[in-house]
Amino acid sequence: MKPISILIIILIIILPLTIYLSSANSVIFDKNYYKNEFKKNNVYEEIAEADIISDELIDYLQGKRENIETSAFEEKERSHLRDVKALMEKGFVLFYFLLGFDIVLFVLLLMLSKNVYKTITKLFVLSGLTTTVFPVIFFFSNFSSVFTLFHKIFFPQGNWQFSSTSNLIIMFPKQFFYDITKHIFLNSIFAGLVLVFIGVILILHKRDLK
Questions:
Q1: pTM
Q2: Once rounded to an integer, what is the mean pLDDT over residues 188-210?
Q3: H-run or E-run covering 40
């Protein structure tokens, strides 16, 4: 297999991952999104200060705070949130690594390609289509099963299950996670379709030049 083909295949795999992580970062730390979800899930009826707690929690997950100062969460909940923060820190590292890797591979692709126009078109269309695949699978899957599997894989210590009276569950029920995952994937699908659209435009433009 030619080096340029290998580069394209690798980019088709890691570019969607970069898009997913970028979308996740933009949604997870959107404080207004949390407010909308709290209204939707009637959280304010149970926890009036939910906005203050979530703002502190977001700052904590972003690394702007070293500890969770609110007394709203019990120790088991705090323990889980520490694990969530550790996972998100790894996510940050992975995102920036993939972003840098994307750039390096893209530059190499341009340097090695004999037909840059064709190469970029193929990359945009294929990576865009690939980006839409996983979200589509998600929408046809059983979210409860996926949710449980995710937690068993990334939180094997088992401190992620709480009673229905837990403030963490009241603020962030399963519906919250379904909505936020859906939002992340919808953003990703949009980004993927933009890549496909650009690729198609380039193809049409190339035909017009002939």
A1: 0.91
A2: 85
A3: helix 31-40
